[in-house]
Amino acid sequence: MKLDDDLKLQILEKVGIYSQRFSIPEPVILLTTKEVLDAPREMTEGRRTSAYKYYGVSYLQHNLVFLNVRKIPDEKTLENTLVHELIHMRFPYLAHGKRFNKLVRQGLKGKTFSPYKKRSKIPSF
Ligand SMILES: [Zn+2]
Q1: Mean pLDDT across the chain
Q2: Helix (H), strand (E) at residue 28
Q3: Within its chain, how far is the Cα of 81 from the centroid?
Q4: CA 84 – ligand 1 centroid, Å
Q5: 13-59 residue pLDDT tens
Q6: CATH number at residue 88
Q7: How many CB atoms lie under 10 A from the CB of residue 88?
Q8: Considering the domain boundaries, does residue 53 fall inside one?
Q9: Cα of 27 to ligand 1 centre, how many Å?
Q10: What is the DSSP string of 64-94?
Q11: Is 9 inside a domain boundary?
């Protein structure tokens, strides 16, 4: 898709909406491979080349999501990719698979998720 200011705004709006529904902090969104390459190296370490291959990449440690807008063919795929990456943010322990795909479908339909609580052996107060 052609990335213009309108589309940029639409994407950021959607990120805001879905982040709220998924109870996650709004990630920083990169929309071009150039932005990935311009990002601090430690943030995109090991994933810099994958940026070209995929529709989207999430960098969980840095709360950063790359959407390869120019490679994404249409609005539906864009929304799928966006929700896919945000589900990674909300369910960081979950690998791709049936359960993951189900959560993406639910997310696309407007489901809300309660905040992710890290399981820790150290009690937090
Ligand atoms: Zn994924």
Answers
A1: 92
A2: strand 28-30
A3: 7
A4: 6
A5: 999 999 999 999 999 999 998 999 898 888 888 777 666 789 999 99
A6: 3.30.2010
A7: 23
A8: yes
A9: 15
A10: EEEE-TTT--SHHHHHHHHHHHHHHHH-TTP
A11: yes
